[in-house]
Write a structure and sequence with these properties.
10% helix, Double Stranded RNA Binding Domain, rod-shaped, eight-stranded antiparallel barrel, mainly beta, 357 residues, 2 domains
């Protein structure tokens, strides 16, 4: 009432000023401080590239500090198909974890920075006009009060509020198809010749061969050898001698380290064979006897491959018998000739190998 009276005395009515318009309903960065932990292989961009991407997308100078309201853990790992980014966001309101895969680190940094930016963007509440207090009630007075008309102030036209900033979602990262690992398989056919020791009465010649499945640093082989028959005399007796030969088949597996064109296979497995014995010398009659032979071979070899389809091989090693056959001749005076295969025999072979394809 006092203000109205003073206005009446001055002869000018008071004008009521309108409050400033409320700001538009927009999305802004809730905080310019965040805690960032970064872990990536050396071939990926550094931590500063991720921070620069955030600052470029937000348009503000973000500050990386410890103990901030938003904690961001970024971990990049190398995979067979490319790289995988693991993004963990922790805020007082919620926690979430996202994973992305891409053939390069640059695409992962772009996708991860967009996810962090969507967490930083929150809608700002529109400002509200303050309440205008009502004037106090008029006190009754004996003197008449002049009535002063109030002229309303011209209202300012408020500009239309811009549309709220939409929350951008990171582009989907399609996983790259994983290529199948193909192991090159080759086939080798070998022909070998050499000597055998201990499987017959005396050292003898031996021939053999095999078919092998070749891997980059290993081989599996099925082989066969034949040691030619030799004879022996016991206690100087010439009329009663034993002739024996051995034919065997084996399956072995080899570890074959490679140095240039050279392979060094170290092999072991199992072998089964047939030892054949008969009488020799001036005997009236004899019959042929065949017995089972079993052993475990251990061989060390070398293979030189001047071309992909041809190799020169050599191998040698002991053979430990699991079953030893034996032969003898009998006369009226008793046994006059005996032979039993050795517990440990040896084999030395060399030859060629043709490889396919």
């Amino acid at each position: 009432m006092l203000a109205l009276l003073l206005a009446a005395g001055l002869g000018e009515p008071p004008a009521l000023e309108a409050d400033p318009p409320a700001e538009a309903h927009t999305a802004v960065v809730a905080t310019q401080e965040l805690e960032l932990h970064w872990s990536a292989p050396p071939q990926c961009p550094p931590r500063s590239s991720f921070v620069d991407a955030l600052r470029k997308l937000s348009g503000q100078d973000l500050t990386i500090v410890a103990e901030a309201g938003l904690k961001v853990d970024v971990s990049v790992e190398a995979k067979a198909s490319g790289y995988e980014l693991r993004l963990q966001l922790t805020s007082p309101q919620r926690a979430q974890t996202r994973r992305f895969e891409a053939p390069n680190c640059a695409a992962l940094i772009e996708a991860g920075s967009l996810v962090v930016l969507t967490e930083l963007l929150v809608p700002e509440q529109p400002a509200t006009l303050p309440a205008v207090p009502a004037p106090p009630p008029e006190q009754p007075s004996n003197s008449p009060t002049p009535i002063v008309p109030l002229v309303p102030a011209q209202t300012r036209e408020q500009p239309p509020a811009p549309a709220p900033l939409a929350r951008t979602e990171p582009p989907p990262v399609r996983p790259t198809p994983r290529s199948r690992i193909r192991v090159p398989l080759r086939l080798g056919v070998s022909v070998l010749a050499g000597g055998a020791f201990g499987s017959t009465p005396r050292p003898t010649g031996s021939i053999g061969g095999g078919v092998a499945l070749l891997l980059p640093h290993a081989r599996a082989e099925i082989s066969a050898q034949h040691a030619f028959a030799t004879t022996t005399a016991t206690d100087g007796v010439v009329i009663g001698r034993v002739s024996a030969a051995l034919t065997r088949v084996g399956v072995v597996g080899c570890w074959a380290p490679r140095v240039g064109p050279l392979d060094f296979p170290l092999c072991s497995g199992v072998e089964l064979g047939v030892a054949t014995g008969r009488g020799a010398g001036t005997v009236q009659s004899s019959r042929t006897s065949r017995q089972l032979w079993a052993a475990v071979p251990v061989t060390v070899g070398i293979a030189w491959a001047p071309t992909p389809r041809f190799a020169v091989r050599a191998l040698a090693g002991p053979t430990i018998a699991l079953r030893r056959p034996g032969f003898h001749l009998r006369a009226e005076s008793g046994a006059i000739g005996r032979f039993r295969t050795s517990m440990v025999s040896a084999l030395v072979l060399a030859g060629i190998e043709v490889r396919f394809p």
